[in-house]
User: Fold these one by one.
Assistant:
Number 1:
Amino acid sequence: MSSNSAATPESLLDELQSTLAHGTVARRVQTLRRVTDLFINGAVDYSDEQIGLFDDVFQCLIRHIEVSARALLASRLAPIDTAPPQTIRTLAFDDVIEVAGPVLTQSARLDDDTLIETARNKSQAHLMAISKRRVLSNAVTDVLVLRGNDEVVQSTVNNPGAEFSERCFTRLVNRAEGDDELCTCLGLRPQMPRHLYLKLLAKASDTVRQRLEAAHPKQSAEVPGAVREATRRARSSKSSMTQQTAIAHALVKSLFEDGRLDEHQVAQFAEAGKFDEANAAIAALANLPVTTAESMMVESRSEGVMILCKVSGMSWSTVKAIINMRDDLLGGEPTDLQASKETYERLRPSTAQQVLRFHRMQQTWSPPTAPAA
């Protein structure tokens, strides 16, 4: 141990120069092992300057060693929070997954920019390794879901530490159609936007609904066989309402009670992509429960939106903003705006009121809900 304790990164530099100039592959590997042992034994206590020196030594060595030695180095450095950052980055970008994998999955030294660059340019095996990290930001999951194959996407959705943007959730809902496994995993994710959860249920098979019921027997009423029942019951259950949705509804209620809720405000909500606010505002102006408005807003076609807006006396520009918001959030084929405009202009308020009465009748049996306002 005396020779080990006497060794320092500085004293290894001379040996490194000699090894790289004249040493065999075996000698280079032996030097790498000694440097790695030295670093791991004192990693907690090294200063940033000393870690930088180790970084230089490792960088010199890994350019001259075989794959198996690089893989061993990666597996040893990956769990260490203070591992030399440039070395970790180099290992992460290695084309050989046996080298890159441990670092991509474990290393706290990798920032989002590095993970995103790797996910955009490397193999599906690299994406799979990233998908297993303890924490994944929505910036990283966006790329994993966009580029990843079915296995990568499944692994990402199954990761409890993964965050997803609303756009990513939209992409996943569209991708889950016909994929019961992915559909089930998505249905169990917390923080999923309500309108996308309802769309997921609308596309889900009976098998998926049964799985969600089995996973949440106390909330089985929220996963019924009929989509409209799912819409009604999910809305009527306070426990199923996310905090974000509750805040949105409270804001709209305040605006309504103060007399500040009007068509202009609805258009602003829609243009900002705020579904919960827009939905609650439309419900208030049309004098409807939020559940009724929502069931019409998430229909695959835009007729429900036009009925609500016509009853509220809204102009086409506001209707267009709402339709565009729906298309952005729900995905799928974009709405034919010209045809919708012609339909909206032909639609009579009296006809819209009749259709709305039909929607109300469908929900008369459901538990009473608080007024939308």
Note: The chain has a mean pLDDT of 82.
Number 2:
Amino acid sequence: MSARLHSAGSTGAAREDGPAMERETYKVVDMHTAGEPVRIVTGGYPPLEGATLLEKRRFVHERLDHVRTRLMHEPRGHAEMYGAILTEPSHPGCAAAVLFMHASGYSTMCGHATIALGRWLVDTGRVGRTGDETRFLLECPCGPVAVAVDTRGARTGAVSFDSVPAFACALDREAEVPGLGRVRFDIGYGGAFYAVLPAARLGLDLRATPLARLVEAATAITEAVRAGPPVRHPSEPDLSFLYGTILTDDEAPGPDRPSRNLCVFGDGQVDRSPTGSGVTARIAIETARRRLVPGTPWRIEGVTGVPFEGMAVAATTAGRYPAVTVRVSGRAYYCGWSEFVVEEEDPLRDGFLLPG
């Protein structure tokens, strides 16, 4: 698989579109899921070192972070860009492995990228089709997830995945948040940890309050929670951090009551999609509160209004926590294919972001 997933970047070759000079190239496929971008690196990314996927995640953070900023930041990307790095799986039975990256770092799970990768891996033949539905395991930093791609022509792009064990880490936790006072929230894990609370609890409205104000409030909550008692994954220290905050509407969960959320992750990035790992975390929380019965589908939309559907499909455990496996479904679409060039003489070759 490595020869197909990683092709060496070109250097010093004469080209029709420019003079011959020392430069590196990266090939990518751009997709989106419910409006959230996914930049899949298909060529030029250096080989990854590490026996496990989490070791490779540490390696890219420590040794190859300039590649992330080249592809995520301006001038090739932007502050809200999201990407995927494919590599060899270390977990038995997995067809591929992926690291997720964005403008401010690396995440441990990404549902919208998993949906896009599911379609792309099957479309390109990296995973062979098997009838009307193709199933395979994709190794993510949080663990293997089971992916199912609908390969019937009438439903091109429809993908679902079954999560790692998802659980409510804390219910009704409180923190003092500058500018907001004492705030009550839940913490859920869906491959990444999120603080989750209704926007109305802050006197805000997901549909009427300006987006900048919602992002400001969610970012303040994330910072306050990160400054408090740390969240802890039951078995893996590398997964033990709060990824972001999800503001929700007040709609009670149910098959006939679609909900909306706004996920603000990383250092203030806004997920355009409903956030696959966030939908997973929300369903784990609502199941723990006994407001959502396993087997009940729930449609949740993000800021674009395009929904994912989630459903708890099995009970399980995660260390001392009761947990559920959550199935999340959505669709991904192609945006384009690109080859990016990095010239050694370019003072902005490793990318930049505007302050603010």
Note: The mean pLDDT is 93.
Number 3:
Amino acid sequence: MMAPIRTVEMHTGGEPLRIITDGVPVPEEGTLLDKRRHLKEEADQYRRFLMFEPRGHIDMYGALIVPADHPEADFGVIFMHNEGYSTMCGHAIIALGRYALDYGLVEKTGEPEQAINIQCPCGLVKAHVTVTNGHTGAVRFESVPAFAYRIGQYVNTAEFGPVELDLAYGGAFYGILDASSVGLDLKTSPINTIVQTANQLAAATTQQIEITHPEEQDLGYLYGIIFTDGSIGSEGNPSRNICVFADGQVDRSPTGSGVTARLAVTHAKGLSKPHQAHNFESVTDAVFSGQILTETRVGPHKAVTVEVSGRAHYCGRAEFVMENDDLLASGFLLR
């Protein structure tokens, strides 16, 4: 029998986060990316055990807290999902900010806000947690430098012919396009149709466009497709988007790294300026706010850092076990 694995369950705008608190071993030595690589290549059974059925589902998301190797970080995190291990996750950062203070990873020192630095595979993310009468609330974080990778890029598809999209990095790479350009309506189109369309676009983009990050090879791959309503999410008038990532996984939240990538694109197009407020809503009507904080560079790319704000909530706590005679214990997925 596998030793019990303990978790704290949260959600951000309906998007689950299974925070793994005990029971998944990782090497003590090496960088965060080394630990992520070890899990991927040597210990992927833990991801399948926790993300797949019967303990999880096709859209489950997890976070494993590990020691940081960045000198400014309070702790490190490795993200996981139905396909593997992502490089950044904004909805998880928002949840982990509350968790870190509530569960003592970082000592509560004051109000109305407390800073927490989290090392992610994409780099250091600086979060700020609202604290009122000792209770944690909303969380905002500053992204790693984000940039538009390709603007107005065409990919050829069997069903839609040439499709124009923007490619951008917000801690992970996304293809971003107006949903109406491929016949979708984000409020009325069936989720299955949205997922199938995203999968076709993701496959075409991956096959036809080489995606590289100028500073870290492990970050250079397409993570997801973001369909938008065509607006830029001005304050008081949220832009609706749906992100489909990994293996057809639908983000219930507005997608923190996706908001970051979207603002990198609007900045590159001259539609956003630093400290201009934007709002973005998800399939659950949850809202993240976002604004550009600074302008910088990443290799040859003009880049920005983005502040994203949102709320996360607790769902419960769990202890997962595996019995030796359970033929389904290692996990499975049904669509």
Note: The helical segments are 32-42, 45-51, 90-102, 191-208, 256-268.
